[in-house]
What does this fold into?
Amino acid sequence: MEMQEALHWMVGRDRKKASIGVHNMDVVTPPFSYVTCAPDEIKFVPLDKTEPMTPQEVLEKHEKGMAYKQEVDWAKRYPLIVDSKNQVLSFPPIINGELTRVVESTRNIFIDITGTELNAIQRSLNVLVTALADMGGKVE
It folds into this structure.
């Protein structure tokens, strides 16, 4: 997770060019979709919270939402990554969902990288996947 935050800052330029989500793959069902929703349309539990929130509530009340809201609050619809059961994995580039929190016992992960600059996205992915492979991970 420290590497994720370092890449957000260095390569992603504080999430302006690229944003990374790391998820527990075992609790969601592919395929995944990148969708949009109205600010108050869908609720999910963001990381480090226990109650469901709408994307608008995340921007107003969650620490990460308040820090990065300028990246999306100008839009009429907000981006989400959902699985085939419409479970929310992420509200990029703001926050992931508690549903896919990675813990020490997590064995299968799904990585999403979204952004506005392809080079930053590819560089982030290359660094992250190489590091995971060097630690013995199997990349698919």
Remarks:
- Strands lie at 18-24, 33-37, 78-82, 88-91, 95-96, 109-115.
- The first helix runs from residue 2 to 10.
- The chain has four helices and six strands.
